[in-house]
Amino acid sequence: MSWMTSESVGRLGALSEWTIRAARDALDGRRGWRGYLAFAGPAVMASIAYMDPGNFATNIQAGAKYGYGLLWVVLLANLIAMLFQALSAKLGIVTGCNLAELCREQLSRPVVLAMWVVSEIAAMATDLAEFLGGAIGLSLLFRIPLLAGMLITAIVVYGILSFQRNGFRPIELIIGSLVATISLCYLIEVFIAPVDWAAAAWHSVVPQLDGPEALVLAVGIIGATVMPHAVYLHSGLTQARIPARNMTDKRRIVRASNREVVLALAVAGLVNIAMVMMASGAFHAGHSDVAEIETAYHTLAPLLGAAAGSIFLIALLASGVSSSAVGTMAGQMIMQGFVGFAIPVWLRRIVTMVPALVVVALGVDATQALVASQIVLSIALPLPMVALVMFTRRRDIMGPFANDRLTHVTAAIGTAVVLALYVFLIIQTLGIAIPGLPTG
């Protein structure tokens, strides 16, 4: 087994003694707000799942084809994500177990095996999007073959993961820096692109869907935003991070976690909104057929200048590398949680590289593969959502931290929305006519 052993995967969120002491001082009120920086990290790590290359693919298509019309879907998906990431973090803090481990303990073996298989498929779909995204960014930025970009991306990701030998904080800082890079790039992009701010604000809160194709893309946006592996991962990042000495400590840690979730995912949501706004401002009026990342780059540079194209690629590269590293860690944690063992990280990287290599070898359009991967994720998503709602409602598991009625109802509604979109996707895939919606 590699340096990422089963024990290290089971304690992904473990910190140094110095950081734990700083956190405890903050809990005791001895360090002020700066002390709460010791709690920062898990939500930032999870948030990269909401800014991965799959988001680039779906958001470019949404903005180019429908303008600002699907911004409300992005906002809704982000609010759902906030709730479920907060619940996942709370589960880890309160129980000391991650979601996959609780599924193995609480559910029947056939259900656990089914969830594991679906989760592994989702993990491979996730890695397909993330790995391809980083490779596309490298290929376009440095004008190298896509296959060479894939190999370089794999090496860089493995290098990032190797920092776990020095403790978990270095990886958090690396991922946090890449998140900041993506955010800065899109802050610049929305001021370069000709954005209609009033229309963007209106469509962020007023729902509309222009036919079944828009609804399919909305499902892709949900799948690209509310990520199954992020729901599993967050509980693993918090389960052994800062041991609580008593119930008061747990309450304060949960509150600190909730604040970090809101802040980190608000940034991720704004980045996604900025992606759609940029694509709408740059492409919708005269280039609504733009649907591929490569086409977006080649169209963006002549329209808004070479700097805009380069910034776009830097953000894509940072997204692909960071999300691929986090996705590999999540996959290891999911495997150990469900079946009790982990494989060497280099072997997992090779296995999850295979689908991307096949896509390139067969000449499949990379961006369409990214969008398809997000639809696969939306199909896999209801399982961890249902399990999370069920476990966090139970007082025998959560004690006094069990969800109150309002939280439970809100989480149930969020799950129902995702399930409804999933059912629509199956019906649409089978070609069954839906009353009130045109086909095609």
Kindly describe this structure:
The chain has a single domain, classed as Amino acid/polyamine transporter I, CATH 1.20.1740.10. Helix content is about 75%, strand content about 0%. The chain has 20 helices and no strands. It has helices at about 5-10, 15-25, 40-45, 55-65, 70-95, 100-105, 110-140, 145-160, 170-190, 195-205, 210-225, 230-240, 245-285, 295-305, 305-340, 345-360, 365-380, 380-395, 395-400, 405-430. Helix 5 packs parallel to helix 12 (about 230-240), helix 7 runs antiparallel to helix 17 and helix 9 packs antiparallel against helix 15 (about 305-340).
Query: Which CATH-level-2 architecture?
Result: Up-down Bundle
Low-confidence residue ranges:
1-12
Determine the mean pLDDT.
Answer: 82
Instruction: Please state the structural category.
Output: mainly alpha
Give the CATH superfamily: Amino acid/polyamine transporter I
Order of helices and strands: HHHHHHHHHHHHHHHHHHHH
What is the total tally of β strands? 0
Query: What is the CA-CA span between the terminal residues?
Result: 50 Å
Query: Which value, in Å, is the CA radius of gyration?
Result: 21 Å
What spatial form do the alpha-carbon principal axes imply? globular
Task: Domain count, please report it.
Answer: 1
What is the CATH C level class, in words?
A: Mainly Alpha
Number of helices: 20
